Amino acid sequence: MHNRSILNNLDQVVALAGGHGLGRVMSSLAFLNCQLTGIVTTTDDGGSTRSNLPF
After folding, report:
1. Which residues contact 12 (CB under 8 A, 6 or more apart)?
2. Do 20 and 13 contact (CB within 8 A), yes or no?
3. pLDDT digit string (tens) for the chain, length 55 residues
């Protein structure tokens, strides 16, 4: 595959995402090994602690 050889020539590949989509991207790029970095975004609305607040 031509795209694979292009990616192998890069020094580093970084994937930015949140949710289960990042896992799919990382799996498909796993052949890059140490050249691949994933940055995961998360959020928390505080729902489990909000009920303990007096207001």
Report:
1. 35, 36, 37
2. no
3. 567 788 888 899 999 988 778 888 899 999 999 999 999 888 777 676 666 666 5
- CA 26 – CA 33 distance, rounded (Å): 10
| 36 class by beta-carbon count within 10 Å (0-12 exposed, 13-18 middle, 19+ buried) | middle
Sign of CA dihedral 31, 34, 35, 40: positive
- Indicate the pTM of the whole model: 0.61
Query: Taking the alpha carbons of 45, 46, 50, 55 in that order, is the dihedral positive or negative?
Result: negative
